[in-house]
């Protein structure tokens, strides 16, 4: 049932020009688009796409890739982004969406390097036995490093104190340098594009943010 749903969802996705079905197609697009000093940004675990659609809308000169593991969630994101484009009467031709596991991001991007990685409200996986699934676990950081330009940064936001502390230690041990650390992002005046989860959960407590390189 699930497999059939996924197949139907993928067939539907393929009709949408923002959906990139393979690394070969991705590379062809990036070769064409990354000209004249355009920058490349990627959000991993984009969910329903609120953040990346606003980011790509506010910054039409640069290229954005949204990655989401779960196909049905990506299908919802595409619907939402289509509506967003209709409302604004624009085409976000700088935004591309893919479905793959963050563990394969090095393989998927190949020679293409990003200027920034966004990790927003990654699943906390609170049980110790699931720590390896956290998107700030060493094996994921290792993948992110492969796709980062020398001066690239990684921005991480969460409302989950446990995941925040885990990520601080994991990033420190990995050798990332901390550029910015916020213990209550919404009490600062730094510019912030909110995500779906942030909208829902920020009223229950602080939002933590890290910027590392
Ligand atoms: C808690 S949601 C947050 C969604 C969105 N970033 C937000 O802030 O509203 C985390 C998302 O990460 C996706 N995800 C989890 N593990 C992933 C992985 N290994 N690779 C890519 N996406 C993943 C999940 O499917 C889920 O949609």
Strand sequence of the main sheet, in spatial order? Answer: 3-2-1-4-5-7-6
Portion of residues in beta strands equals 15-25%
Q: Number of folding domains?
A: 1
In the CATH hierarchy, what is the class? Alpha Beta
Could you tell me the mean pLDDT? 95
Low-confidence stretches: none
CATH homologous superfamily, by name?
Vaccinia Virus protein VP39
Give the helix proportion (percent range).
40-55%
Q: Specify the overall morphology.
A: globular
What sequence of helices (H) and strands (E) makes up the elements? HHEHEHEHEHEHEHE
* Helical segment count: 8
Chemical compounds bound to the protein: S-adenosylmethionine
Quick one: biggest sheet?
A: 7 strands, mixed
* Number of extended strands: 7
CATH topology assignment: Rossmann fold
The second-level CATH architecture is: 3-Layer(aba) Sandwich
* SS content category: alpha/beta
Radius of gyration: 17 Å
Structure overview:
By secondary structure, the protein is α/β, with parallel strands linked by helices. The protein has a single domain (2-212), classed as Vaccinia Virus protein VP39 (Rossmann fold, 3-Layer(aba) Sandwich), CATH 3.40.50.150. Helix content is 40%, strand content 20%. It is built from 8 helices and 7 strands; from the N terminus they run ααβαβαβαβαβαβαβ. The protein has helices at 2-14, 23-33, 50-58, 71-88, 105-109, 138-147, 161-174, 196-201; strands at residues 40-44, 63-67, 95-98, 114-120, 148-158, 178-182, 208-212. It has a 7-stranded mixed sheet, sandwiched between helices. α1 runs parallel beside α4. It is globular, with a radius of gyration of 17 Å. The mean pLDDT is 95. The site of S-adenosylmethionine has 19 residues, from α8.
């Amino acid at each position: 049932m699930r497999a059939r749903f996924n197949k139907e969802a993928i067939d539907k996705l393929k009709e949408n020009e923002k959906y990139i079905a393979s690394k070969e197609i991705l590379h062809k697009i990036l070769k064409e688009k990354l000209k004249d000093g355009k920058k490349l940004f990627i959000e991993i675990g984009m969910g329903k796409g609120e953040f990346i659609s606003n980011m790509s809308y506010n910054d039409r000169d640069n290229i954005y890739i949204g990655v989401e593991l779960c196909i049905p969630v990506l299908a919802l994101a595409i619907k939402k982004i289509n509506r967003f484009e209709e409302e604004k009467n624009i085409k976000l031709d700088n935004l591309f969406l893919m479905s793959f596991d963050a563990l394969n991001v090095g393989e998927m991007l190949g020679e293409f390097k990003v200027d920034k990685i966004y990790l927003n409200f990654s699943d906390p996986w609170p049980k110790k036995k699931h720590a390896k699934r956290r998107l700030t676990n060493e094996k994921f950081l290792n993948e992110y490093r492969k796709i980062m330009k020398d001066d690239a940064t990684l921005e991480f936001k969460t409302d989950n104190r446990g995941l925040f502390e885990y990520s601080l230690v994991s990033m420190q041990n990995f050798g990332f340098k901390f550029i910015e650390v916020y213990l209550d992002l919404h009490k600062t005046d730094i510019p912030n594009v909110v995500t779906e989860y942030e909208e829902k959960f920020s009223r229950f407590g602080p939002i933590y943010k890290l910027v590392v390189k």
